[in-house]
Amino acid sequence: MSEKDLHLLYNKLTEITQSKEYEISDVARTIAVFRVAIEYGVTTMGFPVLTYLVAKLLTVALGIMAGDESATYEDILDDFEEEDQLKH
User: Fold this and answer.
1) Residue 70's domain spans which residues?
2) Per-residue confidence at 62, pLDDT binned at 50, 70, 90?
3) In total, how many domains does the chain have?
């Protein structure tokens, strides 16, 4: 996985989400992005792995909000990328 590609995808998704082109609320934007993530995740990883990933993401988000400096999204990415590599 390329760090550059990951950063580019993140920036593109952020740009699309924040675009003034769509006349929808912030809640609707968040739901749309989350829905795409859920549908893509179920298709590519399956529901059990996706729900495990979502639980880890929520845990890290709560850790970051609580000020836990060891809580990072990179750790989750490393764990799941490693598992994905073992499958292929």
Assistant:
1) 47-88
2) very high
3) 2
